[in-house]
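Quick note —
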Amino acid sequence: MVPLAQLKQNLEFNRSLGGIVDVLKVSAAVQLRRLQGGVHFYEPFAQQLREAARLLDVRGIEHPFVVARQDLPSCTVVITSDEGFAGELNTLLINAALDTRDAARSDQLVVLGERGASALEELNESFVAFPGVPEELDAAHVAALKRYLVEGYLAGRFGRVVVVYAKFVSMTSQHIEEEQVLPSRALFEAARPARPVHPCFVEPSMEQVIEGLVSLWLDVTLSALFVSSKLAELAARVMHLEGSDQELSRMQHQLGLQYVKHRHALADTSIREISTARLKVAR
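Predicted structure written out below.
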């Protein structure tokens, strides 16, 4: 039987650990709610870019941002988390990225986040590493990844870029999704079926306008994917911590019952010993 002093120590430790879990859970929930406030900026801006692209007639344009190059390898970017309590989510992301990549075509793998990089090292996979998504989204992080992808794409190292990320749906639901960012299919496909109704003068050139639109498109798309990944990460942390909190409550209840039972047993033993001693004295 566990000594009474040990049971009391376990109760106090469990209570302290529960308080820490509550603080972490509230902190993650507050971060998630704050980040949700700015997520609606990206879609209206992306819609405006699509409207601008519809003014262009890109048929016959051989620019790499418009024409897919199926003969080149692909580049798969996976956004993982460096925060605690996101190990299961990282595993799903890594597995999805490896399933997307075709090793026989020498497809390239890019990973964001140290923990994702460590997981790929354990699997003996070759990859290019970038820092994970920070708590405060910085345009410099988006710009560094965009620069690498655009330079590699235009240099012909790969002909397609797909981002694997965790899409935030709700607090209890996160989906692993794939988003093709190069060539910018989502931006220019809507502009291809028909010519603009009104004449459109393009200055300084069609190629430079396409490059400018794609640059803005990558900025807003990558930023949106970063935010979605961060939201999914925070939601996964909150749910994991909620499960830990419930488990600690269950353990606390069991420890409390054991403590009370142990005290009652000791009290009963003491009463019996005292009663026995008095009877012996009375005789």
